[in-house]
Amino acid sequence: MMAGDGEVLAVEGLSAGIRLRTSAVDAVNGVDLLLRKGETLGLVGESGSGKSMTGLSIMGLLPSGGHVAAGSIKLEGRELVGLPERQYRRIRGNEIAMIFQDPMTSLNPTKTIGEQVAEPIRLHLGASAGQARERALEMLALVGIARPAERLGSYPHELSGGLRQRVMIAMALSCEPKVLIADEPTTALDVTVQAQVLRLLHDLKDRLGMAMLLITHDMGVIARWADRVSVMYAGGIVESAPTRELFTGMRHPYTQALLACTPRLTQPRENTLYSIAGAPPDLLDPPAGCRFAARCAHATERCESEAPPLAATRPGHTLACWHPVDGPLDPATTPAQAPVPDTEQAGPVLDVDDLVKEYGGGRFALRGLKRSVKAVSGVSFAVEPGRTFGLVGESGCGKSTLAKMIVALEPPSSGSVTALGGKLNELRGRALRRHRRNLQMMFQDPLDALDPRMRIGAILREPFEAQGIGTAAEQLAAIRELLDEVGLPHSVLERYPHEFSGGQRQRIALARALALNPRVIVADEPVSALDVSVRSQVLNLMKRLQAKHGLTYVVISHDLTVVRYMADAVGVMYLGKLVEVGSSDDIYLRPAHPYTAGLLAAIPEPDPDAGDRIEIGSEMPSPYEPPSGCRFRTRCPRAQARCAEEEPQPRDFDPGHSAACHFPLREPQVTVRTG
Amino acid sequence: MTRYVLRRLATSAVVVLGVSLITFMMLHGLSGSPGRAILGVEASAEAVAAFDREHGYDRSLVVQYVMYLGDLLQGDLGYSYRLNQSVNDLLAENAGRTAMLAGAALVLAIGIAVPLGVFQAVKRNSVGDNLLTALTFVAYSMPVFLLAMLLIQVFALGLGILPAQASQSSSNFVIFTEPRAMLLPVLTLTGVTVAMYSRYQRSAALDQLAQDYIRVARAKGLSTRMVLTRHLLRNACLPLVTLIGMSIPLLLAGNLVVESVFNYPGLGLLFFNSLNNQDYPVLLGYTLVASIMTVLGNLLADLVVAVSDPRTQNA
Question: Alpha-carbon distance A539 to A553, whole Å?
Answer without folding.
Answer: 12
